[in-house]
Amino acid sequence: MSGSWNDFNDAKQNTNIIPKGTLAKVRLTIRPGGFDDPAQGWTGGYAARGTTGSVYLSGEFTVLEGPYARRKIFTLIGLYSPKGPDWANMGRSLIRGMLNSARGISDKDSSAQAQAARRISSFADLDGLEFVAKVDIGTDTNGDEKNEVRAAVTPDHKEYAAIMGAAGIVPPTQPPAFTAQSSMPQPGVRPSWAQ
Q: Alpha-carbon distance 100 to 38, whole Å?
């Protein structure tokens, strides 16, 4: 008999897990770790240092829309590991993806504009970033399943626009094309200063 008061074999485990591969629009909040290393450009107290000497950003990704709205996913973004470059490279790759996603840039785009959009002046530029994340499943320190964000979805993905929403894409700052026209005198209309 299933669901009886003394038989827990059919009890569902951790129903809070968002299915692996789910695409969701998220906002990154960096939980300050208070570790600065100005030589590396790590300032503002954003980075954290672990007991092993590794340095990371403690990311809190809040799902903004859809069936998992308001759910939070906690993922560390690697900056440095004493064990070698892999963790930092994974972190750099994730940040590149997040910037591409947030700023609406194809990963293949190597134009000057795209390159500028992938640069940040400090970690503060990442705090509050909204992008499309691909939800993954990892394990926590107890070996239990937990959601993680290991990759961002860029405009190359067919579902990107629908998830990000056309208004959600923030292009790199550039003056709108129409402003040049509006200051030009219209033919046959005397500019106000000439009246």
A: 26
